[in-house]
Amino acid sequence: MRVPVSDVGLGDRAADVLRGNDLGSMTAAAPRLYPHMWSWDSGLIAVGLARLSVPRAITELRTLLRAQWSTGMIPHIVFSEGDGYFPGPERWGTETAAAAPAAVRTSGICQPPVHALAVRRILDAGRAAGGETRDQAEASVRDTFGSWLAWHRWLATARDPDRRGLVEIHHGWESGMDNSPRWDRPYAAVVPGDDLPGFVRTDVHHVGDVRERPTDAEYGRYLWIVEQLRRVRYDDAAARDVVGFRVADVFMSAILAVASDELAGLGDEFGFADDAAELRELAARFRAGVLSTVSPVTGLARDLDRRSGRWIETETIAGFAPLFCGVDDGSQRALFWGERWCGHPALAHPLPPSVSPADPGMRPRTYWRGPVWPIVSWLFGWAFERQGDDDGARRLRAASLRQLAAGDFGEYYEPFTGEPLGSLQQSWTAAVTLDWLA
Ligand code: 9WN
Description:
Layout: H1 8-20, E1 37-38, H2 39-49, H3 54-66, E2 77-78, H4 89-92, H5 115-129, H6 131-157, E3 167-169, H7 172-175, H8 184-188, H9 216-231, H10 236-242, E4 247-249, H11 250-269, H12 273-291, E5 303-305, E6 311-312, H13 321-325, H14 331-337, H15 374-386, H16 390-404, E7 412-413, E8 420-421, H17 427-437
Antiparallel strand pairs: 1-2, 3-4, 4-5, 5-6, 7-8
């Protein structure tokens, strides 16, 4: 029995958050700020749902797959009927894209491929429950395996055309770490045209302090890229030519590597041996790609700006991509727990902030420029457990549950005070809490 008595109430509250944000067959990422389904959120939400109801977790992923494009891409937003989020479906205008689904409204870019981690978790939970639930979980793996494979293949071709083992992104939103300092230099080269249609932000109304969110100048660049992509109807090849932001994202590449291993394992079990072999090759290629980016000076992995050809030297959590995907020789693990990161003496909890607390540019309250994101801590805990580092996984779990104990389920947390920031009742924060408590 792993659940301490004091955490029982926390599990109930986390379940309430997921129920409260449930829109029927999809879960809103957050009650007000994000009233739609987001791709990587839904993967982690499904991990949490698997602890509450395996059939509901299966539904979540099926809803996401209904929005998959014919190219294999899984879009980063699947729009619900709700409104209040900008940019909404009209601004994205993906109905002109040949590959977009007809029946569902989506954005035109992607997010990190964490989904195979959820598929495995759902299968394990289904098998543990047994009976009809087990049958449903196994049938859903069999039915959806080809769709997940198509998603990974699309990333490995359209987004790694020269087979470097690094996923290229065309928008900071694709990384899931929107305004990380990783993207400052590439974004500096994105200059919105005079013909950028005007816009009114809604996000700033849903957080306590607008300074926690990206600036208006940042938003102008974000929307200019949407405009560039919309004008070429989100065609993959044309996008590479016109888009002002093209970066090889090292952390997304590491996620693709581990998720491809997960999918390969499922392929072996369900009789898709050739596909499993292809996925293992893909995992090896992206692991090698991740390793090729490590800075000899800092020991951290780097993103590569494909437009300027320059390495991006920032001290962010993404630098631990090799540790995450299991190609670390031990030095990154030491760095991770050391004083520049989780071992920094001023931290409220020994958890990895989005930017090193020792970096003078770190901004403890601003989104991806400093705060601790519980889902990031969960991803590293998941990876450590998989690598047999039970002690590392246990430390992240224990510190995270202390951080989450008040039950606000913040989107992100101030690293030095532990204050919840951004949206509260954020679905994926509640979901990973449930997984930690299971
Ligand atoms: C843009 C939903 C998403 C997360 C991202 C996070 C934030 C959106 C936004 O919210 O991004 O996609 O409007 O700020 O950065 O990781 O998936 O929770």
